[in-house]
Each structure stands twice: as C-alpha cells, then as structure tokens.
Design brief:
Elements (H helix, E strand, L loop, with lengths): L14 H9 L17 H6 L9 E2 H5 L16 H11 L9 H4 L14 E7 L15 E3 L4 E6 L2 E6 L4 E7 L3 E2 L13 E2 L3 E7 L2 E6 L3 E6 L7 E4 L8 E8 L5 E7 L3 E6 L4 E7 L4 E6 L5 E6 L1 E8 L5 E5 L6 E6 L5 E6 L3 E6 L8 E4 L7 E4 L5 E5 L2 E8 L7 E15 L5 E7 L5 E7 L10
C-alpha cells in the first residue's frame, strides 16, 4: 500500500487526512443535501432508532422513491445532473500518473443491460465506515440474511430477517484473548484501528493498522487469539482471507504492508507459513484447489506463486498501477485482479501471456472483487458510486451497473448467491444496500 500525500504514515486514518480528501470532492458532500455542521454525527451513527432519514424498501423504490432516500424533488440539482458532475469531478487516486487514461485503449466494451440482482432494501440502522481510503474489504455476508461490517471501532452484525443490529466486537478500548494458545498476545491490544475484515462460517478475523490480528469465533464468548504480524513501522494488515486447508483445518492468510504474507492454522493457532516479496502486499487470493496464490500489491505486475513454497510461477503483465483486489472463480481456472488504473483484468491460468478481458470502471480504482459461489457472476466495486455485476458464465460480455452515491466500504455475495450487500460510507446517506438475486419466482415479492 502506497504512502499518502508524502506523509510518513502509509494510511489516511486521522480526521485531518479524511477531511483533506473530502475537500477535494472525493467524498459525497452531505451539505449538498442540507447537511448541517451542527448535526450530532456520533449520536446519529450509533442510534438505530434515529429516524430523520427513513429506510427504503423494494416496494417504495418501485413507486419511485430513491433507493437511498435522497429527496431529489426538493433539491436544486437533479439526480442526472449530479451524476454527470460526479463523473466529471471525481478524482481517482493514482500512484502512477495517468494510469487510468492509458489503460482505456485495452478495455472491453460490455452490454450494460444485465439484470441479475434486484434492489431489496437500504437501511441506515447500520453504517459501515472506512479508515484507509485504499482498503475496502469491510463487509462480509455469511447468509442471505446475515452480514458483518465495520462501523468506527465496532464490528457489527446486521440481520435483514428481523432488522436487528448487534455489536459483535468493540476495539475502542482494551481487548485481550480469553483463551490461552502458544504465541497469542495475552496482553491484547488497546484502541485498535481496523483496516480489514474477513468472516467465514463462525470465524471472524480483524486486521489492524499496527499489524494486529484479532480472531473471534462467533459461537464462543470472548476473543480466541491475538497476535501481531510485525513490529515494524510499516505494519498495516491490508487483507485477510479465511479458507479450508486440504487437511480439513481452517486457515487464514494475512497480507501485510511489510511485504509479507502469513498463513495461520486456526486448529493450533500457529503460524504455518511466512513468505516475503519485493513490495508491500495489498491482497492475496488462494485458488480453489489450494495450490496457487495470486499476489498483488505496490507494483503494476502481480504474481502467481506456489502456495506451499512461495516460489513465483509466473508474473502477470498488463496493469499500469498498484493493485488492491483479487479473486478466484470457483472453477479454479479464472481469476481477476483490480487496479488503480481503473480496470479489472480477468486471467486464465491455462494461458497467462495476457489477460482474457479488461473491464473498465467509471470513476476510479477497482478496490474489491467477488465471485458468486456458483461462478455465475462477478462483482467489482469502484471506490465510490458504482458496483458492476458481470455475467462470468458468458465471458463477461454483459453487466449490471448498480448506481448510487457514496464511498464503498465493501461488497459481499451471500454464500448461497441469493443476496448482494454493499456498504456505503457517507455522512448523511451512509447505509447498507441489499440486492436479491433475480429469479423466475419473484412474483412472490408482490404477495
């Protein structure tokens, strides 16, 4: 992960840096919709009973209500005009100047008429937040009704089935493990800033700005394991992936800004592998068969490596800037990488001489990529306003473009593919969007 505005720190975490970004019009300005500087943002953020801006249902959206509840009819600007303004003025962050412009010539034209997921609900009872402008893996779904996300110093669970919000973990104070395992930091951590998150089945892993890793089983009280990947200054945990090892044990892999990736066995709570690379690692994805790793980071070239040895199999040429996202298709042949050059490149391991498709964003970097478990669709998220859902089964020729306003904290398909959750960070209209997979039996919604 790159340095930010020449600062000695590698992340934009404090209020001044986030404010600087807002002043440059990267973030959706709430004041354009009547936001007052005197609004008590903290109380509104955490009070699920606050009802100044109501939620939106599918039925209301069909009757013409804006899915985010933005009252365009009372504003001095139309939605269409504001969208055009955003497209013209949004500033994409680049480490390599002009990378977004130079990548356009290779991009594939797609049919934007796809209709794969229908809007179902937008709730403001939960608001996901972002601490680092380049890290957007802060929303994870474990079922079509259950989603976990980061909200300030809390990790919260939202049930769309009963519209209930509950706090799972609060790291604003002191946290420490209640179980004793070799290598666990029993003294724990204080005031952890969460940079990344992963949740799978009953295991939750949170990564921090100082290399912290906090492991919690959702069906157990307390925290099971705490460790720090490194004590170097350049320690931020950029991404975490939880997976099932061929042995049957649950493992997780942490990508770190100290140029390393570390694999932990959650059966023994021990570090099982540690590989180092020439540049900070921003994201890592393990192939479905567990044999290969896609590594992307602060280098235009990604690499495919052997998961057992860390040895490079091949270098991925094509991107023009630093990458922050990667994902494997469940068939094990196709994977995708997302870059600050505004593109997602799709690769086939059977021929890696060049990418098989180059997909273009509208506003900026591709910060998050997810495939559905059945391999039918791939979602790619820009830093703000747009999530693209592609028909992966038919060569990425057709897409559904989901259009809204606000920074994107993360996207997640439910394991059964039925739901798509999108975290929206915004002072006024921050929320959680839920879309449901379109099926032939959607007439049930009318009932």
């Amino acid at each position: 992960m790159s340095q930010y505005h020449g600062d000695d720190m590698d992340y934009a975490a404090d209020n001044n840096e986030m404010a600087d970004v807002e002043d440059d019009d990267i973030y959706f300005r709430g004041r354009a919709f009547g936001e007052s500087d005197s609004d008590d943002e903290e109380d509104y953020e955490y009070d699920p009973l606050e009802n100044r801006i109501t939620d939106t249902t599918a039925a209301e959206a069909r009757k013409g209500k804006d899915i985010q509840g933005i009252p365009w009819d009372r504003l001095s600007i139309s939605r269409e005009k504001y969208r055009q303004t955003r497209l013209e003025q949004y500033k994409n962050y680049e480490n390599i100047p002009q990378s977004g412009e130079m990548s356009e010539k290779e991009c594939k034209a797609t049919d934007k008429g796809g209709k794969y997921y229908d809007f179902w609900q937008n709730t403001r009872s939960v608001k996901s937040t972002i601490l680092h402008f380049q890290l957007r893996n802060l929303v994870w779904s474990t079922s079509k009704h259950d989603v976990y996300l980061v909200s300030h110093y809390s990790i919260v669970h939202w049930s769309s089935l009963n519209s209930k919000r509950s706090e799972v973990l609060n790291v604003s104070g002191h946290v420490a493990p209640c179980e004793k395992h070799p290598g666990s930091l029993l003294e724990g951590f204080t005031h952890t800033q969460i940079s990344t998150l992963a949740v799978r089945d009953n295991l939750l892993i949170a990564g921090g700005f100082q290399g912290e890793l906090i492991c919690k089983y959702l069906d157990r009280p307390g925290i099971s394991f705490c460790t720090r990947t490194t004590y170097e200054d350049n320690a931020i945990t950029n991404a975490v992936e939880i997976y099932e090892h061929p042995s049957g044990a649950v493992h997780f892999m942490a990508s770190n800004n100290d140029s390393g990736i570390r694999d932990f066995d959650m059966e023994t709570f021990q570090l099982s592998k540690h590989f180092c690379f020439p540049w900070p690692v921003n994201h890592t994805s393990l192939s479905p068969d567990g044999k290969q790793l896609v590594i992307v980071g602060d280098n235009p070239e990604g690499i495919l490596v052997d998961s057992q040895t860390g040895k490079t199999i091949t270098t991925l040429h094509g991107h023009l800037d630093y990458s922050f996202a990667s994902a494997w298709h469940p068939d094990g042949h196709i994977f995708a990488t997302g870059n600050q050059d505004k593109t997602c490149r799709v690769w086939d391991v059977r021929n890696l001489s060049k990418s098989v498709a180059v997909l273009k964003g509208n506003l900026g970097a591709i910060r998050s990529i997810r495939f559905t478990s059945d391999g039918q669709f791939m979602a790619m998220a820009e830093p703000a306003d747009f999530v693209h859902v592609y028909d992966a089964k038919h060569g990425f020729e057709k897409e559904q473009e989901i259009d809204f306003f606000g920074e994107i904290s993360g996207v997640s398909f439910s394991p059964d593919t039925e739901s798509l959750f999108i975290g929206v960070w915004d002072r006024t209209y921050g929320s959680l969007l839920q879309l449901n997979r379109r099926r032939n039996y959607m007439y049930l919604d009318c009932l």
